[in-house]
DNA sequence: ATACCGATCTTTTGCCTTGA
DNA sequence: TCAAGGCAAAAGATCGGTAT
């Protein structure tokens, strides 16, 4: 493997000059720069990442803590990861994916062993136990999700509260007087996951304001769970809001099996990634969950000299084939 | 056998020298 | 005086060598 010394020898300069050509941190004459760049090409030189981290105290690696829990929809989590990965590469960084739920110890491990330059944390809880550790961390951190006490933290997320309200308001505008929420799995609520709580609060708050009767259900990620939820949904409900990507297809299938027409008998509005809404049996009306966009934004914030604060992305609702005005 | 020292790996960067 | 580029120290872990 060629080292910077090999390149320097081949180009007839010192290693420091090669380093400065690579970093662009000071002016190098055109002739010298071209000679160095040619030597780099000819020798197939790539800087040794370990030595570079040792000398610069920077790793060019971002840690992304994204526990892959059974009650989360992995393809949706991967949209966040994909967005973050692409943006990290654009910043000439790599991503270290930590999928094990290590809690605060994992954050300390990454920070104290200098594994990464910054940490992005997903799956944030409302009373998030990692918050004190994140505040005291000697490296930048960004949360995808918003804990109750976000002071001093940098957070980014879809405005789930506004999303919940938006769903109810649009359905109310279409004349629906009774709606049901097919929400995330019970364990997601029990964990106090922040997006689930905020969506539910927005949903019930808007229902109260608009005089819409609302039932909120928690749906385990399996077909039995879907059946139980639909059994528990009042017959008088004319619309379902599905905030649970994993069961979206099953909800449509079970409604069809029960002979309920969508949207003739019941409207269905989902919160899910756009591509997921567009590739169901029928195109689903949905509030877009912009996972890739949020992942990319988190990377920008982690690598930028951003001040702390909460950035919420405004929800966008697109009506497709599953919502309609109430008959009569 | 144990304890400790210092060289080594590769790269970055502040300071210094050279030459016009 | 300034641009261009070299020198040398420093980073942290590891390993060989020397002293006790």
Automatic annotation (TrEMBL):
CDD domains the UniProt entry points to: HTH_LacI
Record-linked Pfam families: LacI, Peripla_BP_3
Record domain HTH lacI-type: where: 2-56
InterPro entries for this protein: Cro/C1-type_HTH, HTH_LacI, LacI/GalR-like_sensor, Lambda_DNA-bd_dom_sf, Peripla_BP_I
Single GO molecular function: DNA-binding transcription factor activity
SUPFAM superfamilies xrefs: lambda repressor-like DNA-binding domains (SSF47413), Periplasmic binding protein-like I (SSF53822)
Record's keyword terms, sorted: DNA-binding, Transcription, Transcription regulation
The keyword Zinc is assigned to this record: no
SMART domains recorded: HTH_LACI
Taxonomic superkingdom: Bacteria
Annotated HTH cro/C1-type domain residues: 3-29
Identification of the protein by name: Transcriptional regulator, LacI family
Organism the protein comes from: Actinosynnema mirum (strain ATCC 29888 / DSM 43827 / JCM 3225 / NBRC 14064 / NCIMB 13271 / NRRL B-12336 / IMRU 3971 / 101)
């Amino acid at each position: 493997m060629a080292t910077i010394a090999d390149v320097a020898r081949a180009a007839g300069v010192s290693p420091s000059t090669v380093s400065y050509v690579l970093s662009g941190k000071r002016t190098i004459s055109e002739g010298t720069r071209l000679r160095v760049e040619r030597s780099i090409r000819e020798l197939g030189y790539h800087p040794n990442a370990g030595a570079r981290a040792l000398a610069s105290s920077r790793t060019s690696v971002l840690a992304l803590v994204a526990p892959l829990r059974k009650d989360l929809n992995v393809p949706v989590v991967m949209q966040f990861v994909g967005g973050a990965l692409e943006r990290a590469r654009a910043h000439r960084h790599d991503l270290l994916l930590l999928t094990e739920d290590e809690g605060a110890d994992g954050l300390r491990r990454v920070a104290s062993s200098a594994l990464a330059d910054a940490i992005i944390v997903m799956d944030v809880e409302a009373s998030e136990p990692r918050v004190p550790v994140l505040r005291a961390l000697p490296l930048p951190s960004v949360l995808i999700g918003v804990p109750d006490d976000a002071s001093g933290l940098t957070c980014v997320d879809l405005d789930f509260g506004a999303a919940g309200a938006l769903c109810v308001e649009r359905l109310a505008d279409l004349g629906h007087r009774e709606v049901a929420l097919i929400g995330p799995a019970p364990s997601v609520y029990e964990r106090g996951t922040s997006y689930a709580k905020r969506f539910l609060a927005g949903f019930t708050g808007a229902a109260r304001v608009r005089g819409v009767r609302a039932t909120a259900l928690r749906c385990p990620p399996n077909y039995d769970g879907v059946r139980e939820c639909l059994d528990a949904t009042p017959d008088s409900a004319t619309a379902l809001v599905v905030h649970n990507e994993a069961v979206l297809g099953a909800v449509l299938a079970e409604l069809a099996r029960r002979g309920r027409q969508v949207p003739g008998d019941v409207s269905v509005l989902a919160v899910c990634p756009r591509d997921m809404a567009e590739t169901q049996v029928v195109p689903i009306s949905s509030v877009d969950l912009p996972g890739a966009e949020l992942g990319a934004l988190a990377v920008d914030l982690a690598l930028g000299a951003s001040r702390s604060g909460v950035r919420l992305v405004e929800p966008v609702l697109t009506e497709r084939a599953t919502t309609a005005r109430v008959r009569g």
